[in-house]
Design a protein that fits this description.
- By secondary structure, the chain is an all-alpha fold.
- It is globular, with a radius of gyration of 22 Å.
- The chain folds into 2 domains: about 40 residues; about 80 residues.
């Protein structure tokens, strides 16, 4: 009797696992679309520049994983720069006018944190 119950439970577990995997496959495009929209439309909320850039970098990492291809750092830097508030407008203009090469994410974080401190 115990063996029969175990087999039924195992069968139910496998069925549930298959249903979950199937659901995840069907909802993956919606997740990717939502995450992409979140990433592109994100705006800095004033909670701290370091935390914000880390959040954006993590979101880009999830997109990388979904698309199975890395987003270029230059693109991520540009999205972050575009998401900064008006208080960073002079910083953004200076970046566009004076930076000869593209920043890495680490350089962006260092410069943004420094600018945030300067504005306080």
């Amino acid at each position: 009797m115990q063996r029969g119950v175990e087999k039924k439970m195992l069968g139910l577990g496998l069925g549930m696992a298959r249903a979950i995997l199937g659901h995840n496959r069907s909802s993956a495009p919606a997740y990717a679309s939502s995450l992409t929209r979140q990433f592109i439309n994100a705006k800095y909320d004033g909670s701290g520049m370091r935390a914000y850039i880390q959040k954006m970098t993590a979101m880009a990492g999830r997109l990388n994983k979904y698309f199975n291809a890395p987003l270029p750092d230059e693109f991520i830097v540009q999205v972050i720069m575009e998401s900064l508030p008006k208080e960073f407008e002079a910083f953004h203009i200076a970046y566009n006018n004076t930076v000869a090469s593209n920043w890495t994410l680490d350089q962006l974080m260092a410069q943004c944190v420094q600018e945030e401190e300067r504005q306080r």
